[in-house]
Amino acid sequence: MGLTAAGWHVIRFDLEDMCALLGQPHPEHTSLVIQDVLTLHGSQFRNVGLIVSSSPCTEYSYMAMPWTRAKAKAAAIRADTSGDALRRLNMLFDAQFRIQREACEAAGRHIPMVCENVRGAQPWVGRARWNFGSYYLFGDVPALMPPVISRKNGHIGGGSWFAIGAPGQTSVNGNPDGRKIAGFRFDGSGRSFQTAAVNESRKAPEGTRWFNDGPRTPDSLSSSSSKSRARKAASAKIAKIPLTLSSWIGRAWFPTEAERQAAG
Question: What is each CA distance from 75 to 60, 67, 224, in whole angstroms?
Fold first, then answer.
């Protein structure tokens, strides 16, 4: 939605129709391809102006938690001298940069990519270029970064950059942007995650009810399996990139007329 608002036509790739899963209409100026990212070849993207990717963060976030099992899982990956465990962990993350590389080679030009994940990914894939609250960005990110803004007595002076991260300012969803919500976690690890989502997530107006904290019913998320449609829909809402951020990415990378003609 943020990219189309900036003027892009968006081709979406996913394993399933997330709009249908969430009961939402498909955004205008978009098309959907159901395909596993691991089967994509970058030459399919030789005519695009921007690649935006966001692979699942569950394992990275889980291993960042201070739990015995989480620490044991991380230790096992580090202890694997063959490197196979690390390659499996980073398989989707690495595929995104492979696709970009192949796209650039096929196009004969650089095609920028912004890759979103979480803080917990950094020990495994390297330091993020920048972060927007809980959203850590890799790839061609410097163009998105804000200029230095002078502050006096805790207030911004001389204007802000697209109202991101400014104290007291709010995004289109009515909630503070650019600042990590204390305690919010993307770990998908059970009850503690559900409680965190109910009490702390404010990514969207309906966020406080994503995980049912009322009486257990057959339809409540607390009674759903981790693979259920309801649980998947709730997780998708939590992980959704804020409209303010996606709009900023779209505006920062929107091509000039000369660039559009060169790309065909």
Answer: 13, 12, 31
